[in-house]
Amino acid sequence: MANIKQLSARPDDLAPGHRLCGGCGASMAVRQVLMGRNDYDVVCCSATGCLEVSTSIYPDNAWGVPFIHNAFANAGATISGVEAAYKGLQRAGKIPADKKIMITFGGGSVRRNGVYDQVVKALEGRDWVEFWGIEPNPSVETVREAVALGRENGSDFLLAVGGGSVIDGTKLIAAGLLYDGDPWDIVLKGQADKTVPLGTVLTMSATGSEMNSGSVISRQETKEKYAFYGDYPVFSILDPETLYSLPQRQIACGLSDTFVHVLEQYMTTPGQSRLMDRWAEGILHTVIEIAPKIWENQHDYAVMSEYMLGATLALNDMIRMGVTQDWATHMIGHELTALHGLTHGATLAIVINGTLRVLREQKRGKLLQYGERIWGIADGSEEERIDRTLEATKKFFRSLGLSTRLSEEGIGETTIAEIERRFNASGVKYGEAQNVDGAAARRILEACM
Ligand code: NZQ
Ligand code: ZN
After folding, report:
1. Which run of H or of E encompasses 159?
2. Edge to edge, what strands does the sheet with 198-202 contain?
3. Pocket of ligand 1 contains residue 114 by CB under 6 Å
4. Ligand 2: distance of its center to the CA of 262 in Å?
């Protein structure tokens, strides 16, 4: 137990400068309690009264610890809420101290922008190993190496630090660590059975992988790329400042990906949900508005945080509630990445134009709504309005500096034939009407030439 001399050396957490009367019992009681707190984190709460009024006269604050004023006589309930929230955060957002962590990274951007140092500092005293080299469009070949390292070290918690590719690759590592066979089996099955827990530190906004359970994995030897469902991250840390170091093309691809995620869940059948439509339209408007601001100043915290949050909300299971979904553009885009290595967002900026043109009749109602609400196109015949809407959409992708035609990327008939063959061989039918088969994929790709 500390003696008076030791107590008097402790910092004063109720600073002089409060306006309580000299000799007031309340301030003495508070000081004595705070002196006894040792190393515990403390939050103080006071109901309305002398103590509260005299210690927090706006704009001053005499408290050296977090302080809450409760306007009613239930400070005790408020503080038990704080405690419950703190415990909840610990459960969800902290890695238990006894976990053996494997941190996964991409090619090294986090070393250059300081994120690596932040992570290492936060994990001081923990038991961890590092796995480097998860590439853009993560491959099962790399995941196999990571699973071997994780097994060797008994890793039972994964921390993915990077963009969608690092997170996606880590989702497969999480499943692979608890699976006896080849991780590619999990991808082909489309669903992981068991996974070790995974947290993420996001450095590139596009995929929503930080808040969804999806993952897209490539197999280099066969030039295939498929999605599977793993587990949701137990927490994700999103700091907009990590986006400051992104190359402009990555941001363009991230905005394109975000925009098309929304269209995949919105540009289907009209009249299914006013609320989902408005949310989706809100994200589209935001992306259109912030894109030029990002080009002006990539270090604008407010703008970059809207980009970051917009990308997460576009694919975190929110705007898909109760509405039909398409995803044909994505599936065709994955083939273009698998065959040509074209960046994901860049494939979408091309294919979406073909999808909207070929499925124009099926999507007529939604195209008209989107044209009016997003692009302000309300005059003229329906055909004219849709034409202008398709043009505005294409112009938007071009404003990001992305190609909108396959020929610009040197892609032609050989690839179209291969994608048609692959779709026919697997018998897939994508889209909200399940009518995008091999032949439809060909028409869409031809419309992108
Ligand atoms: O590898 P490093 O060195 O970290 O560099 C990366 C990479 O080269 C770099 N980068 C990331 N953060 C950076 C940075 N450079 C500078 N500063 C930073 N802060 O950016 C490059 C691209 O990163 P990547 O992770 O590949 O980008 P993205 O987040 O767009 O992920 C794309 C992958 O996600 C899949 C895509 O198919 C693609 O494989 N998707 C995943 C989805 C999901 N899980 O739900 C849905 C999407 O539709 C998408 O299919
Ligand atoms: Zn995407």
Report:
1. strand 157-162
2. 127-131, 100-105, 157-162, 198-202, 235-238
3. no
4. 10
What is the Cα–Cα distance from 48 to 70, expressed in whole angstroms?
7
Share of the chain above pLDDT 90, in %: 78
Residue 93 confidence (pLDDT): 58
Answer yes or no: are the C-beta atoms of 316 and 261 closer than 8 Å.
Answer: no
Residues in the chain: 449
pLDDT of amino acid 97: 85
- Global pTM reads 0.84
Radius of gyration of the chain (CA): 27
Mean pLDDT of 49-75: 85
Nearest to 291 by CA among 395, 404, 196: 395
Region for 23 from its dihedrals, namely left if φ exceeds 0, alpha if ψ lies in -120 to 50, beta otherwise = left
Ligand number with the minimum distance to the CA of 167: 1
Identify residue 407 by its one-letter amino acid code: S
Measured between its terminal Cα atoms, the distance across the chain in Å is 80
pLDDT digits (tens, 9 = 90+) for 90-105: 666 578 889 999 999 9
How far is ligand 2, taken at its centre, from the CA of residue 138, in Å? 14
CB neighbourhood size of 167 (10 A): 33
H/E element holding 394? helix 382-399
The response to whether residue 113 sits with its C-beta less than 6 Å from ligand 1 reads: yes
Residue 443 tokens, joined: 């028409």
Say which range, 38-42, 120-124, 200-204, has the weakest mean pLDDT.
Answer: 38-42
- Tell me whether strands 44-47 and 100-105 are parallel, antiparallel or unpaired: unpaired
Determine the pLDDT at residue 56.
87
- Closest C-alpha residue for ligand 1 atom 41: 207
Quick check: CB of 204 below 6 Å from ligand 1?
yes
Contacts of 82 (CB under 8 A, 6+ apart): 43, 45, 68
Whether ligand 1 lies within 6 angstroms of the CB of 246 is answered as yes
For residue 383, give the DSSP letter: H
Pocket of ligand 1 contains residue 160 by CB under 6 Å: no
Q: What is the pLDDT of residues 316-345, one digit of tens each?
A: 999 999 999 999 999 999 999 999 999 999
- The answer to whether 312 and 211 have CB atoms below 8 angstroms apart is yes
**Collapsing DSSP states into helix, strand and coil, what is residue 55?**
helix
